[in-house]
Amino acid sequence: MTKPTKAKPILGIRPSNDTELMRSFVPGMAPGQSGPIPTAEAASAPAHAPHQAPPAATDFAVGSVVDVPLHLIAENDWGARVFYSAEEIDEMAASLRDGQNVDAAGYVDGGRVILDDGQKRARGARVAGLATLRVRIDPPPSSPLQAYLRSRRYNAHRSNETVLDNAVRWSKLLAEKAVDSQGALATTLGVKDSELSMVLGLNRIPSRVQSHMKERPRACVKSIAFLIGTMFSRRSDKALDIEPEKLEDIAIDIIERIQTDELTRAQVDRLIAARTTPPRQRARPETREIRFGQAKGTIKVFPTKGQLEFSIKGVPQERLDGLRVALEGAIGKVQES
Length: 337
Fold this sequence. Notes:
The chain is an alpha/beta fold. The chain is built from 14 helices and eight strands.
């Protein structure tokens, strides 16, 4: 009777235990074969034999958990998160060097694995110099809207997207007709039309300023981000006599203050007003000097205020009443004319 042979592991699929994993990496040692502990040189050999093709994404079955080579992982254009700070990517890289605790999730499309969940882990894996990322394979989404909503649901249990992420993705959904209208999108997302409009307005913030915001979480808090957005609204563009590049510099300075000084919304509002409101121009009066005998005086006229001031010093006491009567008479004549 011929002895049955054991099935070979599927390329890219994690073996069921560490022993099988090590043996599958040692050329010439079949699963179940006993022998000495593999050397470091043998353990570092490729997982597939030289005559075999490397695993392709099309080999990954829905429902399987696969160690996907990083070169087969592509960015998700509909992922709920767009911006990642360098700090959080570095933290993820450090964590992954100690092992991946949570599977990513993605689907196969065009020979690549598109991540529904785990884009930060993929970026961290690249920074850490890892070769693969463990991914659970999901069915492909039926539409771009479903792809976005699925990613958004995953993020609700991971790291929530910011209003800047929402601004980019919601605008993309509308621009590419993934939804019928802005109202339909608001209904789908469960937000008010007014909030949706305010979030979309954040797309007016220049990319240089957005890049600065994403590295400073306090600036991405919804209420504060909206205030920063008002600096670049159409109304502000017309009202503020500030060069665009200068306005960006002001915004970046304010964002830095928000983060370092932990400013509240009210403090940010006052700071923006102080940095963008032009200083008041003091009304300069038309001034005339007059003489009354040896006395010297001035008449100041403020045309924009509708104000006239008259003062004189050094008038002899016995002539004050006569001067007052003359002034009152002159004012009376002007009123009658």
